[in-house]
Amino acid sequence: MGADLYMLKKNPKIWGFERSKRAVKDGYFRDPYNTRSVLRKYELSWWQDIIPLQDEKGILSVEKVTDLLSMLESRESIFQENLKGENEAAQADFKEGARLLKKFLSDAIKLNSPIEASL
Fold this sequence. Notes:
By secondary structure, this protein is α+β, with helices and mostly antiparallel strands.
């Protein structure tokens, strides 16, 4: 289980719950609901913090996508602090996941694309 995000102005192919550059390029991002969650390292919750940003259809407007990206940027020090307890490989994985999430959100903003968030 996890958060599945789809850009509405793209036709994302599902990559088997893959978090990769290829998936992001195609308009898809996934974050698991476990200890590997990137959002958790920012001390944010898909349920408590992101669901309130969605409309009744589960869509994040471009304005809300911008808000989410700002939330991540403002919590960068929290993210970095929470990486300190991880081994080197895990730190690299979280950093790559955070980079991909921010790229996904930035790309959606540039394309003026709302995001469907299956949470």
